[in-house]
Design a protein that fits this description.
Helix content of chain B: over 70%
CATH topology of the largest domain in chain B: MetI-like fold
Strand order of the largest sheet of chain A: 6-7-8-3-9-10
Shape of chain A: globular
Largest sheet of chain A: 6 strands, mixed
Number of helices of chain A: 8
CATH superfamily of the largest domain in chain B: MetI-like
Number of domains of chain B: 2
Distance between the termini of chain B: 26 Å
Number of strands of chain B: 0
Helix content of chain A: 25-40%
Number of domains of chain A: 2
Radius of gyration of chain A: 19 Å
Distance between the termini of chain A: 38 Å
CATH class of the largest domain in chain B: Mainly Alpha
Strand content of chain B: under 5%
Radius of gyration of chain B: 23 Å
Strand content of chain A: 15-25%
CATH class of the largest domain in chain A: Alpha Beta
CATH topology of the largest domain in chain A: Rossmann fold
Shape of chain B: flat
Order of helices and strands of chain B: HHHHHHHHHH
Number of strands of chain A: 10
Largest sheet of chain B: none
Structural class of chain A: alpha/beta
Oligomer: heterodimer
């Protein structure tokens, strides 16, 4: 493999608070190649969001190394675009202004920002909604604006923290199709966090499964399904087999996490 | 969900109401209470010294209006509350924003503000008279003491409720701290801050009248004290009504302005 875009080595994170210490991550190793789409699945509370926060530079690791293009990540930066589960659209700005806001922060002139924002609204299929305020948009639309915003300033990689977790099943499927469509055309390095195994398999080149807390990478499943991907693939035997493989890896973790271990195993 | 027929939906948990129904009920309650007041006095059930009739109160107010007394009293009181409230707000805003944004400043300031907040404002009246006499400055001071400390804590809470991910968004865009504060935190907290100011303005009315009742030579509160001395119960009632109307009017004006300013929060 060529030089990875994101490289994580022996990463650990321990939270120390007045109530005690929690080991969220321990010995995490993960490489994400250039233009690779990696899905990270795990049970809730396994530390997958913590890993993303560290990659985003919003948290610092307690031990180990994390690098982007070979350089240590020491803080947040415009080289990584983050899409949060909570849409984080600024409510006093219109959809388009939300995209422009990020572009202006990244140093673009207002004319340039306006034209890039318009293009990205089109990219996520929101032409006609440029002047709408977030309160007027559905959850799926808001997240499309957030994706447009994160893509607009051309980060080296996209970090997505359960971006479709709050959406209803149908909208989620549409969003997944939209995201693969964009990814297949534009090629980006993506770390995508989810607890939805089907979503991870459908979107990813590789799916990494995390253990329960303290989170480690338990297994990495290469998803060698052809692209472009279509939602009809979910019914194919190849898809089912991969789904099964990831599910088997995560199932024992989730049973243990939910206290079902003895009852169901 | 159970379907509520007719008016039952008005008294069901989480039920809906139309604007015109809301207004209708509100006005009806005022009308019923007014009518009860009228009936009680017309039937001679209570001596006018304790409860004057609506007619007496209105004619007294008419007299005071004609003589210019009412307008002068209202003018001075409105002047005092405007200035007192503005002074308090202008100082409370930056401090509330500061301690809502930085935990260190919160630790330094919040416990002290909380401590003073629990001191009854009325107990400050003698001290403020000692310090500043019985002029307007003392009224400003009482309004300030009664409003400022509450405002600081309210604004602090408003700023703290800004979603953490909003701040994280600013960080991922490499915005400097002060720009995150100015460009994200403040605009995000503004609608809630506006509401806090509206609520504290209501309290400011109370402190104004308290200050005017105890030591003043003018204003709505002062007129009420002198009326008591001369058994002018109708004037007391009239001025209480005026105070109620002024309070309600400012509150509604603030609400209306807020809806105009923060229109983006409403689904069109």
């Amino acid at each position: 493999m060529a030089e990875p875009k994101l490289s994580v080595r022996n990463l650990g994170k321990t939270f120390i608070s007045d109530r005690g210490t929690t080991v969220a991550l321990e010995g995490v190793d993960l490489d994400i190649g250039d233009n690779e789409f990696v899905g990270l699945v795990g049970t809730s509370g396994c530390g997958k969001s913590t890993l993303l926060s560290i990659a985003a530079g919003l948290e610092t690791q307690s031990e180990g190394e994390i690098r982007i293009d070979g350089a240590d990540i020491t803080g947040p930066g415009l080289d990584r675009g983050v899409v949060f589960q909570s849409y984080t659209l600024l409510p006093w700005l219109t959809a388009e202004q939300n995209v422009e806001f990020a572009l202006r922060a990244s140093g673009r002139s207002s004319a340039e920002a306006a034209s890039i924002a318009r293009d990205h609204m089109r990219l996520v299929g929101l032409t006609g909604f440029e002047k709408a305020y977030p309160a007027e948009l559905s959850g799926g639309m808001k997240q499309r604006v957030a994706i447009a915003r994160a893509l607009s300033y051309r980060p080296k990689m996209l970090l997505m923290d359960e971006p479709f977790g709050a959406l209803d099943a149908l909208t989620r499927h549409h969003m997944q199709e939209l995201l693969t469509g964009i990814w297949e055309q534009h090629r980006l390095t993506v770390l995508f966090i989810t607890h939805d195994v089907e979503e991870a398999v459908y979107l990813s080149d590789r799916v990494a499964v995390m253990t329960n807390r303290p989170g480690r990478i338990k297994k990495i499943v290469p998803i060698d399904l052809p692209r472009p991907r279509r939602y009809t693939m979910a019914a194919s035997p190849e898809f089912q087999a991969l789904h099964r493989e990831v599910m088997d890896a995560i199932r024992s973790e989730s049973l243990a996490a939910a206290g079902f271990a003895e009852a169901l195993e | 969900m159970r379907k509520q027929k007719g008016l039952a939906r008005l008294f069901a948990l989480g039920g809906r109401i139309r604007a015109v129904e809301f207004l209708g009920i509100a006005v009806a309650v005022f009308a019923v209470l007014g009518l009860l007041w009228f009936a009680t006095t017309a039937a001679g059930l209570v001596r006018p010294l304790f409860l004057p009739s609506p007619g007496q109160v209105l004619s007294r107010l008419g007299e005071l209006w004609a003589s210019g007394q009412l307008l002068a009293d209202m003018g001075i009181s409105i002047y005092r509350i405007t200035l007192g409230f503005l002074i308090s707000t202008v100082i409370a805003l930056p401090i509330g924003i500061l301690i809502g944004s930085y935990r260190g400043w919160e630790a330094a300031i919040e416990p002290f503000v909380d401590f003073i907040r629990y001191m009854p404002v009325v107990a400050f009246v003698p001290l403020t008279i000692l310090w500043t006499g019985t002029g307007d400055a003392q009224k400003f001071l009482i309004i300030f003491i009664g409003t400022f400390f509450q405002q600081v804590l309210l604004v602090m809470d408003n700023v703290k409720s800004v979603p953490r991910d909003f701040i994280n968004l600013g960080r991922t865009l490499e915005m400097p701290e002060w720009r995150i504060l100015k460009g994200i935190v403040l605009p995000s907290a503004l609608p809630a801050i506006w509401d806090s100011l509206r609520i504290s303005l209501g309290w400011a009315w109370t402190w104004l009248v308290v200050a005017e009742l105890v030591a003043a030579t003018s204003g709505l509160g002062y007129r009420i004290t002198t009326a008591q001395r001369f058994f002018q119960t109708d004037l007391i009632f009239g001025y209480l009504l005026i105070l109620g109307i002024l309070g309600l009017a400012t509150d509604q004006a603030m609400k209306y302005l807020g809806r105009r300013l923060f229109r983006y929060l409403e689904v069109r």
